[in-house]
Amino acid sequence: MKQAKLVALLLCGIVLVILPLLISNAFVLHLLILCLVYAVITSNWDLVVGYSGIFNFGHLAFFAVGAYSSAIVAISSGISPWWCLPIGGGIAVVASLVVALPSLRLRGLYFSLFTFAFQQIFYSLILINPGNLTGGSQGLMFIPALKLGSIVISRTNKFPSYYLALAFFLLSSIVLYRIVRSKAGLAFQALRDSEEYAISRGINPFKYKLGAVMTSAFFTGLIGAFYAHYMRIIGPAIIGWQIFILALAMLVLGGLGSLFGPMIASFGLLFVSEFLTSLGPYRFIILAFVMLFALLISPGDIVRKLQLATTAIRSKLRKPDDARMDGENSEATPRV
Amino acid sequence: MNSSAALEIIISTLALGSLYCLMSMGLTLTFSTLQLFNFSHGALMMFAAYLGWLVANSLGVKLPIALLLAVVGSFMLSLLIEKTIIRGLMKKGLIEVIIGTLAIALLLENIVLFSFGGRLKRLPVLIEGGVRIGGGFITYNNIAIAVISLLILLGMFFFLKHSKYGMAMRAVSQDKEASQIVGIGIGKVNMFVFGLSGTLAGIAGVFLGTIYMMTPAMGTEALTKAFIICVMGGLGNIRGTILASYVVAVVELTAAFVLGIYWAPLVLFAFMMIVMVARPSGLLARKER
Fold it and tell me: How far, in whole angstroms, is CA A65 from its chain's centroid?
């Protein structure tokens, strides 16, 4: 059964690798790149919200921190944009420390509201434009593009950009997958399910929660930096209201605590949302209805339900011992 | 800061704080009984303001009647939202409710944008003119709004304290199960609280429409203010909310005066985060029972 999963994952990977060879439409390719960016954002968000039970509502701020810091460093210092990518990720980690250190001890909803406030602070900082760094409401323009030899990796050159985005996506996904299956991942889930019990078994809640937030901030900042150099123009809208709702919808409709759910939802929702663009002003009205409908009809976690169903079928086919173990592992979504 | 500027800030604080109190009280009420943070509260305010504009311009009735009709419309709308959406989402979990109310806000905002357009609009003021105090100028409209807000809040307290529904609400916010045992219908109370919160949002919305320019996005800013106030006062804590309204008003006006208008939201959020870390249950923390 493990092999079947591996084969399915490999198939997904192969499809993602050969997809741009089949698609010649530049706009569709652009959307696919954005899908990959969103998939990285939401799967990292899922590590924090779904696996660790930390309701961080300021996750998009890390994306913006990565994008802006990388762009500012590249514009003002003139060093190669390749170095700016890890710098963007690193500064996002610093930002995550700034927000998480004072707030991780707050209870449930208070933590969400605190992190949401952090995101709003960052939004107004961009608008205030201190020291003429962020470009205010107009945004930053002429961000240097990434270059590999003579190949320019930016909006004007979709093909290599797609593969770079894919590389970041795979890197983030593999690391996330390893973390979730590791001892640390188990500790995250234990803290989520019963904090008191986890503490009594010797898990340091503060350390592990901080680790989860920092990991998610790094990859989100990294992909933010990539986004800045890919688009070559960024504005405060990247942490605006509507993007926030869209990303949150991807996370919730994809299913918390499943990593792949949010990734799939990123692809689905972004294409639905772009498809609706042709409907003009009705777009967000329909999107809101779709979200409400989806929330009311299903509890979201479609992927989790599928997992539970396959586990149930598998447990009938297997020795009782294994089945019990498997059932424990697929124990998932946090409920608050 | 000289004394006339200080006087101006004090009077503006009193006027602004009362309006803020009205804006955030609905959120506090819904949180104290339903335990949900309603992200569509700001959009409801915006919707009521536009409704008032529509009624005043199309039906040709007097302004107070138009505003009253808008408030009634906002009440009905919030009842509808509770019945069709919130009730179902409450069974699913915290994050579903949050994203659901965000989706409602998105919906209302875009319906208004679609039917009214994005151009700035303004409701006529309640009373023309103003008075010069110290170095500043305070409009009669602002004073009237502050007085009416305080009267409405007083009425609400009286209602919460003495009426049957008010007592039921307080009972539910203290202990859900116990109030069910003594025969209070939770569903009815929830619906009522949501309606009351919508009414308060409607009143705040039409007042905002007479003071500032109306845009479909005005709800976001109003919600942000109400959000800061509710968190600072302690979620669901009515007295804390009142205190926090005035604290926020004074901090905002001082920050705008000293640093400039663009810094005000940042200073407010930073202040809120400090309050949260220092006093996680709000400025007036309730005693543990």
Answer: 14
User: Which of A284, A194, A112 is closest to B95 using CA atoms?
Assistant: A112
Q: Which residue's entry shows tokens 């407010």?
A: B268
Nearest to A114 among B220, B266, B273 (CB): B273
ipTM of the prediction = 0.80
Give the minimum alpha-carbon distance from B169 to chain A in angstroms, rounded to a whole number: 22
Dig out the tokens for A215 from the structure: 């990991």
pLDDT tens per residue across span B178-195: 988 988 888 889 999 999
Let me know how long chain B is: 289
The pLDDT tens digits for A234-273 are 998 888 877 888 888 888 788 788 888 889 889 988 888 8
C-alpha to C-alpha distance for A248 and A258, rounded to whole angstroms = 15
> In a mutagenesis test of the A interface, which of B98, B269, B272, B275 is the best target, namely the one with the most A β-carbons within 10 Å?
B269
Tokens 């009984």, residue? B33
Asked if A260 and B103 count as a contact pair (C-beta separation under 8 A), the reply is: no
Amino acid at A103: S
Q: How far is B134 from chain A (nearest CA, A)?
A: 30
Q: Out of B85, B107, B266, name the one closest to residue A128 (CB).
A: B266
In sequence order, the β-bridge partners of residue A152 are: A147
pTM summary value:
0.82
**CA trace torsion A79, A80, A81, A84 (10° rounding):** -60
Q: Helices marked H in chain A — which ranges?
A: 2-22, 26-46, 59-77, 81-103, 108-128, 158-181, 183-193, 195-200, 205-231, 241-254, 260-277, 282-297, 302-317, 320-329
Give the contacts of B269 (CB within 8 A, at least 6 positions apart): A117, A118, A120, A121, A124, B228
